Amino acid sequence: MAGFVTHLESAIDGTHLEAEQIQTLHEGRPLWVRYDLEAVGAALTKENVARRTNSMWRYRELLPAPWGEEVTLGEGMSPLLACPRLGAQFGLENLWIKDESQLPTGSFKSRGLSMALSMARHFGIQRVAIPTAGNAGGATAAYAARAGIEAFVFMPEDTPVINQYEARSLGAHVYLVNGLINDCARIVREGKSAMDWFDLSTLKEPYRIEGKKTMGLELAEQFQWELPDVILYPTGGGTGLIGMWKAFHELLALGWLRSDKMPRMVSVQSAGCEPIARAYRNEERFADPHENAHTCASGLRVPVAVGDFMILDAVRQSGGIAISVDDGQIPAWTNQASAAEGISVCPETGACLGALKSLRKKGWIQPNERVVVFNTGALQKYLEVMQLPTTKLPFIDLNQEIDFDFIEQVSVSES
Ligand SMILES: *Cc1c(COP(=O)(O)O)cnc(C)c1O
């Protein structure tokens, strides 16, 4: 393979596997992509990176895709926004949001799927399939269209309606399933020989992590190569958190970080689906499936994660924590954060803000610590959450006289 990839490595037992052929899982568990970091360090400087294209491909020496063959829509280099007003509401002096809502298809899923479809095309794959809780379906459809690859998307029937139709509009074959994402995953797994498709499920191919790790590379660069104290990350399958933790170690090996202080990684879930938070509390390395999973933050509705131990290892090694929040309060936190800073905060990130509130209250986070929350998607994709009864809009009936007292009263009650 072009570039600096040396091999793939089993995350569960360290076995080395050949990178120049299609790989999936090993012993039912995910693979790491490994690089010759010494050679990367000799070939690349921070100054080179700073002059490059404003997308995640600026870190191409740390990425597997064959250069010049990227399947891209310009993903990455999302803004890192200081949030003083929201910070003050939480008693924090140094709060930041890395805003992934502006990426292609409105979520950070575009990073992983840009990379996965680049590699799929490199290997000559012509048909892919994915189970999704929502945003991965739209991103798969978009990058498959871009790559000229046929895509099949399977999602729970109660997936947000915009996710359903965006994937279809972007050219994928979309199917609704009366089950959860793990049931959709079974369809993809069992259909492999009948349908001859490649399974793009979270962590079942090695490259989506590499796309998502660029969130960590960007964060380091945007903070002048000094990592924050705490990172809060909404966790479904865990690729984002696992990828960032990997990225930080690669930067350490390159000697690019100005200190060896690593951030405490906080994995956030909803109490309605909290396999990782529960395994953390129970001091287990592997997570039991969460029965009857439900949450309005659809990206968190992942009852079983094949990379559970990778998430939990990263959280523990970092001195972080995995916690869950009350699902019913997610819409309120989402609105609070969106309104405070003008950022289109998705419900998954709303959960992170609930976690931030409780961790600050407990003193787990100090007022002067530098805290980054990832906004993994755009609120506009969650019509169903925006329409929940607590956020119904007041109505003006033009058959009656316009009542400005009423308009004033509503504004007062909302502020
Ligand atoms: C998929 C998704 C998540 C969960 O991401 P993982 O990396 O799979 O843990 C969080 N937020 C949003 C908006 C998502 O689409």
Structure description:
- By secondary structure, the protein is α/β, with parallel strands linked by helices.
- It has a domain at 80-106 and 208-381: 3-Layer(aba) Sandwich (Rossmann fold).
- Helix content is 38%, strand content 15%.
- It has helices spanning 37-43, 46-50, 84-90, 109-122, 135-147, 161-169, 181-190, 192-195, 208-222, 239-254, 275-281, 308-317, 330-341, 347-361, 383-386, 404-414; strands at residues 5-10, 16-17, 31-35, 80-82, 95-99, 127-131, 150-156, 173-177, 198-199, 230-234, 264-270, 321-325, 371-375.
- The strands form three sheets. It has a six-stranded mixed sheet with strand order 4-5-13-10-11-12, sandwiched between helices. It has a four-stranded parallel sheet with strand order 8-7-6-9, sandwiched between helices. A three-stranded antiparallel sheet has the order 2-1-3, with no helix packed on it.
- Helix 4 (109-122) packs parallel to helix 5 and helix 13 (330-341) crosses helix 14 (347-361).
- The radius of gyration is 21 Å and the shape is globular.
- Bound molecules: pyridoxal-5'-phosphate (PLP).
